Give the backbone structure.
Amino acid sequence: MAKYRNCTCSEDAPYSKDLFALMDPGHFVAIGLVFLIALITLVMFIEAVVWLVKNIPYTQRRLRIIWNLGIYPVFCFIMLMAILIPKSAVLANLTAGVYLSMAIYQFLLLILDYCDGRNTMIEKMQHTQLKLASSPVACCCICLPKIEVTRRSVFWIRMGVMQLCIVSPVVLYIAAVMWTDGNYTEGKIALDESSIYLNTFNVVSTLTAMYALGMLNNCAKQILHGFYLRPKFACIQLSLLVANVQPTVFSILGSAGAITCTQHLSAQTRAIWINDYLVICEMFLLFLVAHHYYRREKGNMDTYRRFRVESFRTDYSTI
């Protein structure tokens, strides 16, 4: 205990061996709890994959569902590693961000798959309109017009989601490169710090992707009755907020002094540590909802195709 009291706050994240040497039993219990949560998530995910392989005969649709279900165990274990090894926070965010951005695009393709491809979706939506005044970017702009669902509008929606697959990994890669050179401090918000600008780009890219995906979801749910699109989209939307927006909020709290340092963690590192712990718990809760709606035939199988699976071929060139 004397060693613990004599330590002072450091701006740098501690090595794992130093972290474990200074932690009290309460911290070990907390880490054990999130490890158990991550393990349960992984076991449930593996069981869901086995079920999907046996019960969802459409290969592309099955793979896209697995991509989206994989968000939660991937984040749980990556954030667990970041908790155990605080210095790996930048690399953890890079890995998780790349996977999430790809999974978001797979969700867009899953919606198109539910509609039997882009051309069929446009045909089914010819009497619906895209509402530009959608959350989270323009929900208050009620003066914005509604536009027809056309090949061009669907193209721009795809681009709005796809840009996240490019911007987020690039931003996180730049952060990782700058971190290796000592020019990037994870969680530190200041005008002379590169993290504030990189985080801003990442948040703007995330909100843009959510806006584009939200517009498509609002139209698609009108023609995809029985596919449970609303809860599935809510899981994706909350995953984006938890992964890309919540860390920025905690970084601001750490830099503003709302989260204080301890003897073994600086304010910024402690803010990241708390965020990672919450991400694991939040991803587990979201996984329970996603698991409920993805691990079932109803909502993922087309009733009229159920008895002619072998002859079914989706035109994936139109997706």
The first strand starts at residue 129 and ends at 131. Confidence is low (pLDDT under 50) at residues 1-7, 304-318. The first helix runs from residue 2 to 6.
